[in-house]
Design goal:
By secondary structure, this protein is α+β, with helices and mostly antiparallel strands. It contains 13 helices and 14 strands.
Amino acid sequence: MDVDRMVAAVAEAHHGIFAAHHLRDLAVTRDERAWRLGEGRWIELHLGVYRIAGAPGSWRGALLAACWAGGTRAVASHRSAAALHDLPGRATAAAEITCPRWRRTQHQGLVVHESCALGERDTTVVDGIPVTTVERTIFDLAAVCGRLTVDLAIDNALRRNLATFDSMVAVLRRVGKQGRKGTKMLRGLLELRDAQYEPTQSERELMLMRLLGAQGLPEPERQFSIHDDQGNFIARPDLVYRELKIAMEYDSVEHHVGRAAQVRDNRRRNAMEGIGWAVLVATAEDVRYGTGMQFVREVRRTRRNREAASMRRA
């Protein structure tokens, strides 16, 4: 029996790690295991979880190792789960897991949450790693992240069809309890939406909406199609105040780089202005949390001017 070759095959299929239960399945004796550990061929990451010496480490491998160390019911959760689901709030600096009970010593780079309120319907598997579902991940993020991050995570999940409004409400009703951290925040964010809610097209669009709302400005319409008097399509800006003919766009570096994109954007914005729309452009700095007052002042000024002009015409 070629122990090393068989164990290497197991490790290759599990992000470079293997565990005591694999060794039992392969009939590897305690003496064989102890010899390889003593010779430095295998490295013990946690009690009963190993990596072959010289094999490159990875964040996913460290996360799976943490789950195995936490027992059969341990899963990746919170910011680690957000990273696996590619949600806002994601973090890979540490392995973050949830398990019913943690009796092992603490390890650097490992964050452990203990919870008995985690059933099979709250878990799934991503890339071979047990992890909380998207809905449960968002609920958990509300306990460790800021309001804006969770707000963005909700829209991200809806936009990508990873979850529905109803499925998130169901988890909140089942798991959220008075006094449980994050419950109040998530309930408030879901109350801003309903089953017919259409998510924003991007995270920056939602951030721009929240910036305006936080400063007491009316909620604008999203993705409104502008046409000229002949019915020809002109543009579909991110946000508008339709009655005042004010269009607001986020100038995304991702979608607005290069001369061709610049020419296209300028033509579209000139066309909107040509039929009487005011066009305001926000940048990343404008929508970053805690900033953006210059853009807000410009929106207020434009609204005042447009309202005054409307009154004069009346």
